[in-house]
Amino acid sequence: MPVPKAELHLHIEGTLEPELAFALAARNGVTLPYADTDELRGAYRFSDLQSFLDLYYGLMAVLRTAEDFTALADAYLERAAAQGVRHAEIFFDPQAHTARGVPIGVVIEGLSASLERSEERYGISTRLIMCFLRDESAESALATLDAAKPYLDRITGVGLDSAEVGHPPAKFREVYEAAGALGLRKVAHAGEEGPAAYIREALDVLGVERVDHGLRCMEDADLVDRLVRERVPLTLCPLSNVRLRTIDTLADHPLRAMMTAGLLVTVNSDDPAYFGGYVGDNFDAVRETLGLEPEHLRELARNSFLASFLEDDEERRAR
Ligand code: ADE
Ligand code: ZN
């Protein structure tokens, strides 16, 4: 039995497996620039974050109807359940869909139709986190928050993702303030490819409660001290870091050093269809490669619930 865990860093669009992509392409009359699933999988060799994002946004062309988003989320939840996931906080990228003419309501209604049944079907509680694309403008992020207002009962928080370098958190101060005023929780990707200074900025300017990745905090000892002191959770994604060449090999991953430093780290899958594994596969990979002991794995699983947006009573039930 896989250890019960929460997944806190998962882009639902990053769970689009080649087989489902081709099925949706056929259903929606979309022609993909790949002959078949093997050729598509063969294109999953990334040199950095941007080279991945180009393919990731391109493949989203197959997602057109609410039913497509429901099918996408159902497929993820089924796989996640098999790997011990009891709670999932799921990112989605509305601007990547609205820019293609798919209304935000279609995306949210489609995902919600799956998530509403996930507890009963898969034993997984869920939350939705709406991400702003940081390589789009601050105005576009504000317009996205505005467009999401009729659906705020389905959305727990906001996040910030896409190309990091050159798009510091402070660019999104206003939309995070507005999101906070609406009662939304706040997270942001920071310190994946971008510098440790972006992690500080996400905390100080955006007021995030949790940092996605946060890997590069290890370059700044004072920042590590602060993250430990303030118990700020970091949602690490080890296989993603290797595939996007943030680190050279999994053996170089600082996860173990981060745990030893007292950081509240969690292990997650990011975009599992592209990076070679779901969250349980990430756990297995770090256990084998970094020689983690059962107590480390228990700590990672415990951290995943502690760092979640579950209320205390829900957290106890989920564990
Ligand atoms: N969007 C999907 N995956 C991402 C990642 N790893 N970093 C930034 N944006 C993303
Ligand atoms: Zn991510």
Automatic annotation (TrEMBL):
Free-text comment on the cofactor: Binds 1 zinc ion per subunit.
Keyword Zinc attributed: yes
Residue numbers marked as site, Important for catalytic activity: 213
Ligand binding (substrate): 271
Keywords of this entry: Hydrolase, Metal-binding, Nucleotide metabolism, Zinc
Active site per UniProt: 192
Cofactors required: Zn(2+)
EC annotation from Swiss-Prot or TrEMBL: 3.5.4.2
Domain Adenosine deaminase residues, every copy: 4-317
InterPro entries, A to Z: A_deaminase_dom, ADE, Ado/ade_deaminase, Metal_Hydrolase
GO molecular function annotations of the record: hydrolase activity
HAMAP family: Adenine_deaminase
Family note: Belongs to the metallo-dependent hydrolases superfamily. Adenosine and AMP deaminases family. Adenine deaminase type 2 subfamily.
PANTHER family the record matches: ADENINE DEAMINASE (PTHR43114)
Protein name: Adenine deaminase
Species in which this protein is naturally found: Streptomyces exfoliatus
Upper taxonomic lineage: Bacteria, Bacillati, Actinomycetota, Actinomycetes, Kitasatosporales
